[in-house]
Amino acid sequence: MAILQAQHLTVSYLRDGRHTALAIDDVSVTLDEGQVLAILGPSGSGKSTLLRAIAGLEVLDSGRVLWQGDDITALPVHKRGFALMFQDGQLFAHRTVAANVAYALQIARMPVPEQRVRVAELLHLVGLDGFGDRRVTELSGGEQQRVALARSLAARPRLLLLDEPLSSLDRELRERLGRDLRRILVETGTTAIFVTHDQGEAVLVADRIGVMMDTHLVQEGPASEVLESPATEEVARFLGR
Amino acid sequence: MGGDRDPVTRIRTAPSTVIATVLGVGLPLAFLGVFFAWPVAAMIGRGFADGLGGFAEVFARPRTVRLIGLTLAQAALASVICVVLGLPVAHVLYRLAFRGRALVRALVILPFVLPTVVVGVAFRTLLRGTPLDGTFAAILLALVFFNIAVVVRTVGSAWEGLDPRQEDAARVLGASPARVFLTITLPRLGPSIAAAASIVFLFCATAFGVVLVLGGTKFGTIETEIYLLTTQFLDLRAASVLSVTQLVIVVALLAVVGRVRGGTQRRAAIARRARRTDAPAIVAAIVVTAALAVPVIALVERSLRTTTGYGFTNYALLAGTGSRNALVVPVWVALGNSLTTAVQATLIAVVVGLAAALVLSRSPRRPIARRALAAFDGALLLPLGVSAVTVGFGFLITLNQPPFDLRSSPVLVPIAQALVALPLVVRTVLPVLRSIDPRLRESAAVLGAAPWRVLRDVDLAVVARPVLAASGFAFAVALGEFGATSFLARPDRPTLPVVIFRLIGLPGGDNFGMALAASVVLAGVTVAVIALVERLRVDTVGAF
Amino acid sequence: MKYAILAAAVALVLTGCSAPSTDAQPLVLVTHDSFALSDGILDQFTAQTGIPVQVQSAGDAGQLVNTLVLTKDSPLGDVVFGIDNTFASRAVDNGVLADYASKDLTSAEDQYLLPEGQGREQLTPIDNGDVCVNVDHEWFAEHGIAEPVTLDDLIKPEYKDLFVTEAANSSSPGLAFLLATIAKYGDGGWQDYWTKLMANGTKVDAGWSDAYYVDFSGPSSEGDRPIVVSYASSPPFEVPEGATEAPTGALLDTCFRQTEYAGVIAGTKNPAGAQKLVDFLFSTTVQNDIPETMYVYPVNAKATLPDSFVKFAKIAPDPFVVSPADIDENREAWLAEWAAIATP
Questions:
Q1: Up-side HSE of residue A82: CA atoms within 13 Å toward CB?
Q2: What are the strands of the beta sheet with A70-71, ordered from one edge?
Q3: CA distance C32 to chain B (A)
Q4: I want to staple C261 with a disulfide (CB 3.0 to 4.6 A). Which of A48, B92, B248, C123 is the partner?
Q5: How close C291 gets to chain B, by Cα (Å)?
Q6: Which residues lie across from A21 on neighbouring strands?
Q7: Is residue A241 part of a domain?
């Protein structure tokens, strides 16, 4: 039984204050527990919107989201127990590294001593031992993304959503952090959806790959299968085959 | 999974969000409704008791047309000058690091809180004998003197939060400093400049004391005319026509300003050392600041003058009640009254203003909701654009039955002051709220924060510093407010500006000296409070 | 948001709760912003009658009367003090006052009473002050020029550019001076006089402080004009400690007398108490206090004047008079005509 079922999601947005345009059109996605799905596609194809729709950040025109068979479509964002990580711009600049990581723990009212232990554990996991008292603005881009990842994982989310988390980094760092990310996701057994435009990253991190083109999900399957046999010519061109 | 389409699911907005929005809109609207719209409408209604025939008659008077022209010209010119002169000062005080910056920032606000009647006298003392005395230019000078702080502070705090990397990027691409400023910096400052300019315009369009004292009797504005018609002639019909005209001008202005709005990105901006390219701005800032200081120095100098030379005689006299008991209470007691009321007014203005700004910072999806918010936004500025006389008399004819039987209640004074301070709070806080990266709120929500918690941990945390700045500003305005206060304050509990006004209205060297000394004290207290607020906020937030 | 609303409620409650509460319903005395009495004077009234008094300010003298007119249906208080002879008719004609003049008035105060039907029945005189042309003795002595004496003198060439006055439409002494010229020269004559006055370099300032402290040359002033429109009570305030001569003086042939009145506001719930308060304002307790606190003369013949008033302040023997009804009827027309001449 799939743990996540997103069924026929359609989201539109106001284009110029009057007309609406579709951002994603009738997209369905399923995911098993512990699986990592990469959504691959060119910019503007709607992959970020799909992620935000699953998170509950977008108002759906139609469709529904099921978690373990329960309809959570109307459940507010903060009650879904998910986590979402952006490319950048998500850390609370007015809080320290530790306070950022502990944010979800504070919301869950974890006792402070336990919070400290968990934060240290997470900082170790992402390779930032001893960074707790730093200001996030003092960190490099890669370090900031590691903090964001630690923060996302802190409350052991049921589902981790990653929106191009590595795109703002340079190539070498991206590969290293990609590998770390894969390791961390496997170690923690986290179910995740990972949005990217880079197929190298997708292969590195994900078990399955979905390809989005122009508001539609055009192909979805195990990573190797999608890469070896693109469903359409368009997908093949995008994948460079 | 079935291939058939599920029925369309519409997601409703969470009920808590609806409640928060209703309260956020409701509190400011109720406040403005009871303490502004109702009194003003009642007052204007009296004037139109026999129909709208007054319009044709009042507009047929050449005097009316001339006054409207003068009002617009004076306010528009003063706003432009304030922006042009205020920008370099804002740049230097908010982007560059140097010793004594906090003090200079606090000093710049000083003219804004000095009692108009005292500054009027100080200004005229300086101008007497020059060709400027009694001219239109003298009025403009004084209006700029009073209001430049609005531009420096509003634009300055927005500038402080601009990501400097964009400027750096443009410079690297080969743009000259001037080009960087015109093509990168200025457009991003646009919303805050528009906000500041519109506030200055409103202050100038409703300026009263300055215009009278400095323009002699040659120049008038709609405001001075409403005052004259209401208090001298009790010609409510003509006064109402002019009040409506004032409202129309204000609403038209706000509509125009509403179009010049957009988000600005904020990123950690740390003040930097001055570079060679800052030289023109620094020179301009020094010249402007020095010019602002001249009347203030003249005032201080005059307050120290005694019959025998210089000394603190006038200040020592403040402990008493003036030559031959001119005052009901010693000046220090009046200062205490002023501080108490100003604190209350600040509290009201910040709470109401913050609630309003939080709602205004949201961008709803539905076009109708967007338009409603824009109207709400404009409504908050209206109190600045309506004559204090109209509001004051309006209070007296409306707030006379339960639950608002407040006419002789001391609560009216802080409320009237809060009305004036409210737009300043909203204008200072709103640009910051609008520029918060929505991903911050989304991150918090996804991590499990309920809407109220997002509000607390993101919006309020980020806005803490601008709110402190705004409350310092609101406090200063409340402290210096005279028009409405003189109308509503109980004689046994006068505020400092009321006492100053009384002292300067009495003959004799001691009374005049005391009035000046008391003005210097008022200014000093204000500067101290603002400097304190600026210092406080350093620890609250590090990087923003 | 919840906190914000809570805080707002707390703020409103806190501020709202600071209103005083007493057992006896207090009398509200509505007055202008220059009202002042020494500490404890009003407490004496409370001691005598058991009624506390609450003072409510309603702006300047003009605003005061207009406030009463506008709040006629729901009166702001019980007693008014501070209506002067230039605004008396408006208050009377609009019916905002109840019929009562203090029972303690004697024939000695007859000179201050308003004409019948124009306020005699409703208003009790409390104080008066003369608005007169003031001159700087020192300046004239220094320059060896004779001081002016009458209104006629002010248009003479030797006083060219020496006179400063206040605008009649924005200043109360300014209006009083205009009324003095109207009383002296009559309709048709005063316009001519003002035209000559302006041609003789008269400066018109917006307000009293501006004229007195900026343009007047007196000892506590900055300016270079030795003739100014001010009050007959101004010179005593310029006397330095221990001096016997006032450095400035009032020209007693140029004065317009402003008399301030008190009355019972129509619709008061406590007419008997309100009448007592009017009587109290006319009593020597208040009358003796008035010169030092409000810089005006008491009207009560039994009141005693402080030394400084006796020594330096002069009373015009024969001030100019314009009837309140005339003022009310012509105010707007006169001010419009005046503005056309004096503020080109």
A1: 30
A2: A20-31, A4-14, A62-67, A70-71
A3: 9
A4: C123
A5: 9
A6: A13
A7: no
DSSP structure class, residue B10? P
Backbone angles phi, psi at B259, to 5 degrees: -80, -25
Query: C179 is in which domain, residue-wise?
Result: 130-257+316-342
* Residue B389 near residue B226, CB atoms below 8 Å: yes
The string of pLDDT tens digits covering residues C218-271 is 887 778 899 999 988 888 888 877 777 889 999 999 999 999 999 999 999 999
**Residue B526 to chain A, least CA–CA distance (Å):** 29
Question: Could you say which of B365, B448, B542 has the minimum Cβ distance to residue A108?
Answer: B448
DSSP per-residue letters across B314-326: HHHHTTTT-TTS-
Q: Which residue has 């049921």 as its token pair?
A: A158
Q: Which residues of B touch A17 (CB under 8 A)?
A: 367, 370
C160 and C252 in a common domain = yes
Q: Are residues C336 and C296 in the same domain?
A: no
3-class DSSP string for B16-27: HHHHHHHHHHHH
**Residue C136: both structure tokens together:** 């700087």
And the tokens for B378? 């404009």
Q: Do B486 and C240 touch (CB under 8 A)?
A: no
CA-to-CA dists, residue C266 to C11, C79, C328, angstroms = 36, 9, 21
Tokens matching residue C279: 């009587």
SS3 of residue C268 by DSSP:
coil
Q: Are strands C124-136 and C297-298 parallel, antiparallel or unpaired?
A: antiparallel
In a domain, A17, yes or no: no
Identify whether residues C210 and C322 lie together within a single domain: yes
Please name every residue paired with B407 in a beta bridge, in sequence order, or none if there are none. Answer: none
Contacts of B186 (CB under 8 A, 6+ apart): B193
pLDDT digits 0-9 by tens, C157-197: 999 999 999 988 878 889 999 999 999 999 889 999 999 99
| Contact (CB<8Å) A78/B458 | no
d(CA C141, CA C121): 49
Residues C139 and C122 in one domain: no
Instruction: Say yes or no: C301 and C321 in one domain.
Output: no
A70 found inside a domain: no
Rounded distance, CA B55 to CA B238, Å? 8
Helix and strand counts by DSSP (H, E) for chain B:
26, 2
The tokens describing C218, both together, are 């007196």
Cα A127 to Cα A89, A113, A156, A172: the distances in Å are: 21, 21, 18, 16
Counting the structural domains of chain C, the total is 2
Q: Which residue has the higher pLDDT, A176 or B276?
A: A176
Domain membership of residue C1 (yes or no) is no
What ipTM was predicted for this assembly? 0.81
Establish if B20 touches chain A: CB-CB under 8 angstroms. Answer: no
Containing structural domain, residue A93: 89-157
User: Residue C216's beta-bridge partner residues?
Assistant: C225
Residue of C nearest to B322 (CA): C293
d(CA A74, CA A52): 14
Q: Which pTM value belongs to this model? A: 0.77
- Same domain assignment for residues C147 and C288: no
In chain A, the number of structural domains is: 1
Task: Name the average pLDDT for chain C.
Answer: 86
Query: Best-predicted range by mean pLDDT among B358-372, C85-99, C305-319?
Result: C85-99
Kindly state whether residue A96 falls inside one of the protein's structural domains. yes
Q: For A138-201, give the DSSP string.
A: GS-HHHHHHHHHHHHHHT--SEEEEESTTTTS-HHHHHHHHHHHHHHHHHHT--EEEEES-HHH
> What domains are defined for chain B?
59-302 (1.10.3720.10)
A153 token code pair:
């994982």
Contacts of A148 (CB under 8 A, 6+ apart): A85, A86, A90, A91, A100, A165
Helix (H) or strand (E) holding B55: helix B54-60
Is the bond leading into B403 cis (omega within 30 degrees of zero)? Answer: yes
